[in-house]
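Lab notebook: predicted structure, single chain.

Context: the supervisor wants predicted structures on file for every construct in the current expression panel, including those that have not yet been purified. This is the next one on the list. No modifications to the sequence; it matches the entry in the shared construct table.
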Amino acid sequence: MQTLGGRQFWGDVQFFRGWRIQRNVFTGHYRLLDEHDFRHAWGTLDECRAALQQVRERTTSAFPRRGVVLIHGILRSSKSFSTIAARLRESGWAAFPFDYPSSQIGIHEAADYLNSVVSHLEDLDELDFVCHSMGGLVLRAWFGEHSDPRVKRAVMMGTPNRGAALADMLRKNLIFRAVFGPSGQQLVTDADGVIPKLATPPCEFALIAGARGTPEGWNPLIPGDDDGTVSVDAVRLDGCTDFTTVRALHSLLLKHPQAVEQALHFLEHGRLQLA
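Prediction complete. Output recorded below exactly as produced.
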């Protein structure tokens, strides 16, 4: 049976090649999907892992030793990384587009899903990350409680590392609260909130911000230059290895040719290309 692949109600807990085991955020049951989102098993975690083991035993093809976990932002899904995932695979990486129920859980709970995935990624010598928007905050939450010696580099694109002014304006709005859920409330700029307490990545990491290149940016409600959702200044995080901006809106960063190539260049060389 083909599924939608999991959007806001399923979270990935284990990968093998293009296969994934997901957990339903409401019922707690699990399912095993192939790379085309067809369901092959359903039930308990042990039952799905047993089915996945059968897949492992039938698989003999070689696989890249470098892997990149792709972490989407709030209300998005792993499908938003289709362009970057394709470019990574063309360049010799294994791409793992990670899904989590971003509008149903908080940032630290999302990091727990991420940890389950990372801890079950086998046969890799190097592990990197590319994150969009809140996905970068999920990674920072993961770094605060976990580590992996294989981690080398990370790229955050449009991540509100200093909080999002837009979330400040909307946090009390009933529609915003209903649609964006608990994690939406955590995106604010509150000095006592979740974001200021998140860890700084201990690995090399680069920041790519969307911008218009003008003092007022795309959105007049956000102070300074911005991508329509997050200001350039909000993306900044002390300790980063490199930083750049591209002329793009927030939701289009993952499709922007320059942003995509900048991200891949950093993963390969540890620096962003010159603009």
